[in-house]
Design a protein that fits this description.
This protein has about 160 residues and is α+β, with helices and mostly antiparallel strands. It is about 35% helix and about 15% strand. The chain has one domain: Muramoyl-pentapeptide Carboxypeptidase, domain 2 (2-Layer Sandwich). The protein is built from 5 helices and 5 strands; from the N terminus they run ααβαββαββα. Helix 2 crosses helix 4. This is M15 family peptidase.
């Protein structure tokens, strides 16, 4: 009986670097999702965004509010699952260019199905704001609860909010 060895990396060095900054509980799920999409759908997916500090989140939130750039997020620092290493944004790499997902991507249903098979929730399922490239884990927490834990110092040895 052969046992399939799990891969510990993806095809993409940029993605691999971003995965190392994710919460330890979702790192392998992310690797498996990216590799499964490549194997089953012949797609090269890249994690374009993963962990984002609260400070980085606030800078993103200010775009379009404190300058003439377009608004890129509706949430302030502490209220994104990215701030806890529990979310990723994914793009397809085709001919060395990033293809951003929307609901018209020819393989979006299959991509989402693979992601959900690993436990990811999809931003395209949201009612008020559709975020098609976004996938996250919540582990039963809201961002308000995670921020409270963060502010209380409920942090593990690697510096991530405890979600056990």
């Amino acid at each position: 009986c052969l046992i399939e060895n799990k891969k510990t990396e993806t095809w993409d060095n940029n993605t691999n670097k971003k995965i190392t900054l994710l919460h330890p509980k979702i790192r392998q799920h992310t690797i498996d999702f990216i590799n499964d999409a490549e194997r089953k759908l012949n797609l090269k997916l890249r994690v374009s965004d993963g962990y984002r500090s609260i400070e980085e989140q606030n800078k993103l939130y200010d775009k379009g509010r404190k300058n003439s750039e377009p608004i890129v997020t509706t949430v302030k620092g502490g209220y994104s699952f990215h701030n806890y290493g529990l979310a990723i944004d994914v793009v397809e790499i085709l001919d060395k260019k990033a293809i951003y997902f929307d609901n018209k991507h020819p393989k979006i249903k299959e991509i989402v199905e693979i992601a959900k098979s690993y436990g990811f929730l999809w931003g395209g399922d949201w009612v008020t704001f559709k975020d098609y490239p976004h996938f996250e884990f919540r582990y039963g927490f809201t961002t308000t609860q995670l921020l409270k834990k963060y502010n209380a110092g409920d942090i593990d040895a690697e510096g991530y909010v405890n979600i056990n």
